Amino acid sequence: MFGCLVAGRLLQTNLQQVDETHAIFELPSAGAINHVCVFLLGTVFSGAASDVSPADVTAILGLSIEPLAQIMQEVSSLPSAVVKANNNPTADATRLAERIVKHLFNYVSSFVGGNPSALSPDFLIPMGVIAKWYENFMAKVRNTGIAFLEREE
């Protein structure tokens, strides 16, 4: 059995069976939805999701129960704009570290009056500025994840 949880709403359990392998949840006021979670209890679930925002007032969240091989074949045929799993965790960690440092640099640069060239190797940055950045950064990560780091490029 499935349950659908939209952020800020009650859990939906009104799954409508379409056929033997397909079912849907109706999601009213789709324009206000920013997070959706589908729960599956007692079974292994593998699949794909899309971040395409519906222009309609109501959206339909569809579920398809398919063999894993078929799901993997369908996911591999998705457009290249869809992010696929990266098999190189070192590259991911390096990219993440670069984005975090760039975020810190941009934050610290804002304290030199819009003149980043004023930041020289001898420029002193108070630890309070770094501590405040860290507090804000961690709060943002806890609240929204790390996607904001990718948008800053």
UniProtKB/TrEMBL annotation:
One of its GO terms (cellular component) is nucleus. InterPro entries: Hikeshi-like_C (IPR048364), Hikeshi-like_N (IPR008493), OPI10 (IPR031318). Residues 6-44 form the Hikeshi-like N-terminal domain. This is Protein OPI10-like protein. Residues 93-151 form the Hikeshi-like C-terminal domain. GO terms for biological process: protein import into nucleus. It comes from the Eukaryota. Belongs to the OPI10 family. One of its GO terms (molecular function) is nuclear import signal receptor activity. PANTHER family: HIKESHI FAMILY MEMBER, PROTEIN HIKESHI. Signal peptide: none annotated. The lineage of its organism: Eukaryota, Fungi, Dikarya, Basidiomycota, Agaricomycotina. It holds the Pfam family Hikeshi-like_C.
